[in-house]
Amino acid sequence: MRKFSNATEILPYLDSLYGRKNVKELDRYKALLTQFKQLYSCTSAYLCSASGRVEFVGNHTDHNGGRVLACTISLDIVAAFLPNGTDIINIQGKDRRPVRFSIHDLEKTSGSASLCKGVVAYLKGQGYKVGGFDAYTDSTIPAGAGVSSSAAFETVIATILNELFNNGQIPAEQIAKAGQFAENEYFDKPCGLLDQSVVVVGGAVALDFADELHYTRLQADFSKIQLVLINTGTSHGNLSPLYATIPAEMKAVAAFFHKQRLVEVDEELFYSKYDEVVHALGLRPALRAKHFFEENHRVDEVQLALSRGDTAKVVELVNSSGDSSLTQLQNCAVDEYDTAIADIVKTARKLCPCGVRVHGGGFAGTVLCVVPTEYANDFVAKVTEIYGNRVYPLRMRSVGALVL
């Protein structure tokens, strides 16, 4: 861990963080350091970065012990920070409400402050050391868009506490669980461990949530595809009750078979009892469970297709995942009049042979497009004409959350 006094010292890190050296990012760090030094009357600061994430396939499977293919991306939250020798955590940021609280006052509140308190509470509860620090943040991750802006913020807090007070010895899984705890207990969002796990681990990974966090690095050539996010322009920030129905209904199906999660249910037994599940619980829970089993198979198939460089198969499977999310998982609309996600999916598929699906938690947020490289420039130009600054061509990021 080193202190930085000017932005040019960041240059060696830009390739791994953003896929290339970028003047815009350099200017961003310059502004970050300048603001921090002015706010806290210092000459240098430590720097931390945690990125957003996308999942290729594996929509809403993690909370029931399923599998996911995902990667970190070139959109991130960065923080300049220093310990302050007190018990006060003080965080300011560009376009972010200030957060200030004592590490001894961990009462649930709201917004970023509540998430931060949740992270501190979890780490303290696990016996790790916490302390006061000052930070200034800047984020390029669109909030409420399903690309893990909250998970990135939680991970930055946990990573800072890890490095300042625990000599970097907190395991990755514990950092991820600190973020999940904050979401579950301090934000009333019953999310699984997907978002935080990918943000912490970094790179392109296959994750299995059947037991403890298990992941493997994807061995694939990603030069044949371009990832493009299209923001619907609406936030899922206030849609936790809709989101919560998905894990709840999947677990209700598991309970029908006297299990806690769907991963514990024999798939053949589920299909043999499908009509009974529908009769007992209703059609939507049964369809959502069906999506779970089918999506897990798609994860394996996409991983194989990526390893073989079979872009056409990847596109086919991503579209299959998108159709399943629309018709079985049913996380593409808030109500029957909401067609924002479905309209983007339909439009994008017309423009070129690409894979398109709702991304992340769904109901609002973003749509993910997996575009063969030969169509990428034309595709981005066309969707930008339609959706303007809501289009995000992405670069994959090779590293997870870290202090530089």
Structural commentary:
The chain is of the alpha+beta class and 404 residues long. The chain contains 13 helices and twelve strands. It has helices at 14-18, 23-40, 111-125, 149-165, 172-186, 194-201, 240-256, 267-272, 274-281, 283-308, 311-329, 340-351, 373-387; strands at residues 46-57, 67-83, 88-93, 96-102, 133-139, 204-208, 214-217, 225-231, 355-358, 366-372, 391-394, 402-403. The strands form two sheets. Strands 1, 2, 3, 4, 5, 6, 7 and 12 form an eight-stranded mixed sheet that branches. A hairpin with a 7-residue loop joins strand 9 (355-358) and strand 10. Helix 5 packs antiparallel against helix 6. The longest helix has 26 residues, at 283-308. It is globular and about 65 Å long. It starts with 13 loop residues before the first helix and ends with a strand. The model has no long low-confidence stretch (mean pLDDT 93).
Short description:
45% of the residues lie in helices and 20% in strands. It is an alpha+beta fold and 404 residues long.
